[in-house]
Amino acid sequence: MPELPEVETIRRDLDREVAGKKIRAVDVTGMRSIRRHKNKKEFISQLEMRKIGGVSRKGKYLLMRLDAGDVLVVHLGMSGQLLRAKGPKEPLPKHTHVVLTFTQGGQLRYVDPRTFGELFVTAADDLESQVSELAHLGFDPLDDVMSWTRFGDLLYERKAKLKPLLMDQRFVAGIGNIYSDEILFAAGLRHDRSSDSLSSQEVRRLYRAMVETLQEAVKHRGSSLADEQYRDLFGEVGDFQSQHKVYDREGQPCRRCRSSIVRVRVGGRSSFMCPQCQV
DNA sequence: CGATCTACCTGATGGC
DNA sequence: TGCCATCAGGTAGATC
User: Fold this and answer.
1) Under DSSP, is residue A271 helix (H, G, I), strand (E, B) or coil?
2) Half-sphere exposure (CA, 13 Å, Cβ side) for A173?
3) Can you give the distance from the CA of residue A77 to the C1' of nucleotide C14 in angstroms?
4) What is the CATH number of the domain that holds A155?
5) In a domain, A279, yes or no
6) Domain interval for residue A202
7) Three-class SS string for A56-107?
8) What is the CATH number of the domain that holds A129?
């Protein structure tokens, strides 16, 4: 579900809503969402009576600093949600796996029907060295400013097809199936163009499209598709789906040239593109 | 090395 | 009404 714009929306709200709060109690249902830990007790003891500091993000990972020098890491997978609740009286949604209750009142709940997401606590010093997914993440397209010539060098080195490359978290962190399609449309490039075949003008267009599409999506608080599974911290849907140019628009007219948007299969997943505007 | 697959899960949807 | 297949924002690991 959530890609960089959705995770960034949640990060900003978390930073305002839970930073500075102290965790009084932790409730965990089942081991699947905390599978990196040996048992519930080991996970819970690292959180209880700890104060949450600032909340940051690396790609699609949320990092919540704890006062003991540890970090609570959250990855939402396909269907994870972090939801704020006023208190324990609010009914628990189905598939709630972890609940943090704060001393000041209020709760933070982790809900995840498909259970591909996870939470774990690790020492801040070990993040880069011990957690290999985080250690190998590529640059963050919004946080790490880069010249487009440098971006062009990185593209040239990889010699991969553009869509799988944009979705490769080791290359650039935070882009998934929706935003890779939207970025490639904005750049006017096909998903199967080789990354070493781009003219300098195309490199510039791709870089601009990546940054601007993601920034615009953050402004709209992310994309919620038909199932509205993406919800922000307050349970509200995002708004960027109404701005989608290609994603989930099969058969509808291209907003630029009126051609019919087509759906193609790339690496087992659906991709959407305008056959006219993308070359 | 890259490309391609499969597995991990639940739930919604559509065809018959 | 139900049954079955297909699909869904992600990632890791196996296999070629």
Assistant:
1) strand
2) 21
3) 21
4) 1.10.8.50
5) no
6) 148-273
7) EEECCEEEEEECCCEEEEEECCCCCEEEEECCCCCCCCCCEEEEEEECCCCE
8) 3.20.190.10
Out of A60, A65, A190, A193, pick the active-site residue.
A60
pLDDT in tens, A222-272: 999 988 899 999 999 999 999 999 999 999 999 999 999 999 999 889 999
Nucleotide nearest to A267 (CA to C1'): B4
Q: Is A222 helix (H, G, I), strand (E, B) or coil?
A: coil
Q: What is the pLDDT of residue A255?
A: 97
- Burial environment of residue A182 by CB neighbours within 10 A (0 to 12, 13 to 18, 19 or more): buried
CA-CA-CA-CA dihedral for A205, A208, A214, A218, to nearest 10: -140
CA pair distance A82, A32, nearest whole angstrom: 16
Query: Is residue A141 in some structural domain?
Result: no
Please give the protein residue whose CA is closest to the C1' of the nucleotide B8.
Answer: A116
Residue A60 φ/ψ, nearest 5 degrees: -95, 10
> Is A60 a catalytic site residue?
yes
Could you give phi then psi for residue A260, rounded to 5 degrees?
A: -75, 130
Which of residues 240-269 of A have CB within 7 Å of strand C? 241, 269
pTM higher than 0.70: yes
Q: Both A153 and A205 in a single domain?
A: yes
- Token representation of residue A59: 């790609």
- Please identify, among A135, A170, A186, the residue that sits at the C-terminal boundary of a domain: A135
Mean pLDDT, range A114-120, rounded to an integer: 97
CA–chain centroid gap for A243, Å, is 18
| Distance, Å, A98 CA → B1 C1' | 41
Report the alpha-carbon distance of residue A233 to residue A266 in Å, rounded: 32
